[in-house]
Design goal:
β6 and β7 form a beta hairpin. It is built from six helices and seven strands. It is an alpha/beta fold and about 210 residues long. It has one domain: Uracil-DNA glycosylase-like domain (Uracil-DNA Glycosylase, subunit E), CATH 3.40.470.10. The strands form two sheets. It has a five-stranded mixed sheet, sandwiched between helices. The N terminus is likely disordered. It binds uracil.
Length: about 210
Amino acid sequence: MAAHSDTVADVTVIPDQQPASLEACRRCRLWHDATQGVAGEGPRQAPIMMVGEQPGDKEDLAGKPFVGPAGALLDAALADAGVDRDDVFVTNAVKHFKWSLRGKRRMHKTPGQREIEACRYWLEKEYAAVDPRVVVALGATALKSVLHDYRAGLRMNLGKVLSCEGRLVVPTYHPSYALRAPDEASRHEAYGTIVDALRHAGRLVRQHDRR
Ligand code: URA
């Protein structure tokens, strides 16, 4: 990891770069303060792709997506929805951890449009490799990236099945929202919404397979 600095204006950014590896990516500045890029994981040809926002602190260190508390919640939600983990490829809209230092802790910062846009290069590569039939967008950042629409809002699309570039898109809350909602009732409700979305994604895959 490069030393953290608040000003990264001097960091090379090559928006049109077509890097061969995530390690070599300089399409935006986020590589500079991250330990490593975190690529998606899961079976090739998984029918469902779950797209989160960006790696968190634990994922940045481990180099794997959703290995922290948000990942544990997703595993529980998949089990409750009856979706086989082997049917799911897990990734993020943005592949490098964006953070700022608060005390000694690296605090998550929401990626901006330019970063989401720059990183769609990698999501497209994952689409090409996996070719999922259904994409579950976890939270607003993922939805913007997946729909390629930076004005897309999550709440107005909850409960809907959208379509983009030939794939079905199921929007739902980000697991961190279900972990951090202020009271037990809202956490429970958010968790239930995620389970419903995953169950629906599983159903859409089965319907597609029957055709
Ligand atoms: N949150 C995300 O959006 N992705 C991860 O990989 C971990 C936490």
